[in-house]
Write a structure and sequence with these properties.
Length: about 90
């Protein structure tokens, strides 16, 4: 079973969301703080925590970019049309 835990510890969080990654990090922290942690699993758990931290940081960066874009759209004067990157229609086509 220790080998299964070690293999899982290095899996990359492909579809996990931010909340799931934080929950897993909390669990890993509890494991790392436990004096009874199997020393053979220590490096794998630290590596998994590192991967989750990188994943969370990338999600935070992406959210920051999205929020900055939204705020920039809000700061445009009312007489100018909002920037809609998802629309392929031109004002002349409507």
């Amino acid at each position: 079973m220790a080998r299964d835990d070690a293999a899982k510890a290095t899996d990359v969080p492909v579809a996990a969301g931010y909340a799931e990654a934080i929950a897993e990090l909390d669990g890993l922290l509890a494991d790392l703080e436990d004096d009874a942690l199997d020393i053979d699993l220590l490096a794998a758990k630290v590596e998994r925590a590192s991967a989750l931290i990188r994943f969370c940081r990338s999600r935070i960066r992406a959210a920051r970019v999205q929020v900055d874009r939204i705020v920039a759209d809000l700061e445009q004067p009312d007489d100018s049309p909002p920037v809609d990157e998802s629309s392929d229609l031109d004002d002349s086509e409507t």
